[in-house]
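Q: Here's a chain of 501 amino acids. Please give me its 3D structure as tokens.
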Amino acid sequence: MMFKCFIILRKCIDSITTWKYFAILIMQFFLMIWLLIGAQSFNHPPIITSEFQPEYFLNRFSSLALPCQAYSGNIKYYWYQNGQKVENQIHITANINSGYLMITNYTKDNFGVFYCVAENDYGASVSLFVKIFEAVLDKFRNMRPMSMLSCEEHHHCKLDCFNKPRCEPPDACLVEWTHGFGTQNTVLEDEKTAIDLDGNLHLLNVSKDCGNKSYACGIWNEQTKEFVKGSSIQLFIEASKSGTSPRKIFHSNSRVHLGKHGVLQCIFSGTSMSEIKWKNKHGSSISTNNKYRTSQYGRILHVMNVTYEDEGNFTCVTENNLTQAPYLNVTSPPVFLDNGKSFLTTNFTVYSEEFVRLTCNAVSSPMENHPIVTHWMKNGNIVTSFRDFSIQFLENNRVLKINRALDDKVGGFQCVTENSEGIAVVNFLINYVGDNRTLKGPFYLFYLTVLVFAIGVLILIAFGFFVRKRCYQKLMPLYLVIRRRSTTNHENNYDNNIAIQ
């Protein structure tokens, strides 16, 4: 009889474990309801998650698809070009449901500044602004007959690349020099030959083999796969009338965007070509690593993933103690202090009796002018006028102050600011909760009820753990003894039955 009691007790203890997992499931269910209700209590415009490049270049071989993606509610997407809503045409389409902007077989009318507006029932947000241009390579300007140039043997000789054409995008353009007729004989850079970052050809130690040839510069556009050639120069070499010594020829002052790859160049001439070493702005020697590398016989220094700390004069030094100091200028479009990027979304909860002060906290790089706020927007529409002076623009448009209740101003406000390097956008998502700062009404009563119930379930689970532990501590030793005896008796009875048979 006592054994049966303990069997029942064991089942009760095990049922506590089953009840524990069942209670956890109930708690998770109500916790999800609680979170969903809490999320719905903050009714805000969409939050855009798409990241775009500042510029895109198209050529006759390419098309472009830009996805505008956002979350929060049932969202519709609208694209704008140069301030006008994009209407679907043969060459350009904007999908209101998917957010995709598609440009195929473009025309000149499809270029400009674009941005996306994501809209739901509570307002709208604006994406980062994107510039879309055509990738081009024009012809050389003012082509002229072949010119003549004489240089002395063993001296430095510079051949200028005149009247270079427009080439876009710049990082896809490469200056090449050819000699002779056609474009097959390319002048290669070596210890005695260099092409500077302006496209000019330098013969650092002229030999007679360089003479009696025609040279011409040309430009190759990697994106359009085109090459154009400029005017030719006929080079003659004269015997040297005097000796020469190494000297400074060229150095570059480069401008690079934050986080990109910077290039600096130094060129020296002389009969004895020496190794070029580099030092940073603090005077420390530079060695090849993940941050720095050199090319073109040490004439070019590559600086990876530049930061504002990299800005300044670098030094290139030869064994003859000739030095030059090219300057690396690090710049960027405006960035916001909150996240250090050119795109920011921030939330505001506002009560009707409060005024709202929205500050466009964007900054430029240390050497750039302060960014200018070009305009403010409300739900993607430019604010050009306002009624009864409820809105004020302060501090050179950097601050937007709203002085009265926000009944008709719930949604998103945007600040668009720019400097010489690009455009930045911040979305202020306004959550207007009215006059009441406490939870009221049936909806909030249910919200609090679910919260209290969830806390109660947590307390019951903790109590269940405590009861189970006490039961095991007090009753399990006795339960194990009785079970052991019962097992022994059962085995004896089994043996007796076999003997009788």
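Q: Can you summarize the key feature?
A: The radius of gyration is 38 Å.
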